[in-house]
Specification:
Helix content is 81%, strand content 0%. α5 crosses α6. About 2% of the residues have low confidence. By secondary structure, the chain is mostly helical.
Length: 214
C-alpha cells in the first residue's frame, strides 16, 4: 500500500467521524465561535500534538535504538538517519506549529489563565527546539558524519554493527578520535534539544489528560 493510499484511508476514517459527529447536525453557524469551529480547532490541536509526541517517542526511545544496537551496520544506519531526521524534525515542527496556532486561538493570551499560558509556552518550546534541530544541529551532524565515514572507510571499518571497531581504531588514529569527539558534542546537543522538545510535549500531555472526561 503506497503512502497516498494510506493517507486517503486515514482521511476517509476522519471524514466518517466528522459526518457522524453530533455537533454536525443542527449546529448554528456562529462563525469561529460555533461549536463546529471549536471542535475543528480542538481536533487540529489534538492531532498535531499526538503526531508530534508519538513520533518523538518512537524515534527517541525505540526506532533508533533497535536499528543501531541490533540490526543495521553503522554506516548504513547513519545514512538512513541522515535522510530520516530532516523529515522527522520538519514533521514534528509543523505539528507543533499547528498545535500552537490552534491552542492560541482557543485560548487568547490576554484572557487565558496562568496554566494556559504555561501550556502555550511548553508548545512554543517544543516548536523552537525542533526548529533548532532542523536548521542548526542536524545539518552539522550530517556533515560531520559524512567526514567521519570517509575516514572510517580508509580504515576499512563502518560495515559492522555497533561502536567496537571505531573505538579500537580511534586509539591509534588521532584524526578519527578528534572527529569522534566533535561528532559526539554536536550529536549530544541535538539529542538534548530533542529530549527537551519531547519533555515539553510530555508536560502538555498531562494538561490534556486533565481535560478529558471519559
Amino acid at each position: 500500500m503506497g503512502w497516498l493510499t494510506r493517507f486517503l484511508t486515514a482521511v476517509s476514517f476522519l471524514a466518517v467521524g466528522v459526518i457522524f459527529s453530533p455537533e454536525i447536525f443542527g449546529s448554528s453557524a456562529d462563525g469561529p465561535n460555533s461549536p463546529t469551529a471549536a471542535t475543528i480547532l480542538k481536533l487540529a490541536h489534538l492531532l498535531g500534538f499526538a503526531t508530534a509526541w508519538g513520533a518523538a517517542l518512537w524515534v527517541t526511545f525505540i526506532g533508533g535504538i533497535i536499528m543501531f544496537n541490533r540490526n543495521l551496520p553503522r554506516h548504513q544506519f547513519g545514512n538512513l538517519q541522515s535522510k530520516m531526521f530532516p523529515a522527522y524534525f520538519t514533521m514534528v515542527a509543523v505539528c507543533c506549529a499547528i498545535s500552537v496556532a490552534s491552542f492560541g486561538y482557543l485560548h487568547p493570551f490576554k484572557s487565558s489563565s496562568t496554566t494556559e499560558k504555561y501550556q502555550l509556552g511548553f508548545l512554543l518550546s517544543a516548536f523552537a527546539f525542533n526548529l533548532t534541530n532542523l536548521f542548526v544541529f542536524t545539518p552539522m551532524t550530517i556533515e560531520m558524519m559524512k567526514q567521519r565515514h570517509k575516514v572510517e572507510k580508509e580504515e576499512n571499518i563502518g560495515d559492522e554493527i555497533g561502536w567496537t571497531k571505531n573505538q579500537e581504531v580511534a586509539k591509534v588514529n588521532p584524526k578519527l578520535a578528534a572527529m569522534n569527539k566533535k561528532f559526539g558534542m554536536i550529536h549530544g546537543l541535538s539529542s538534548l534539544a530533542n529530549i527537551m522538545a519531547f519533555g515539553s510535549l510530555a508536560m502538555h500531555s498531562w494538561y490534556l489528560a486533565s481535560k478529558i472526561h471519559l
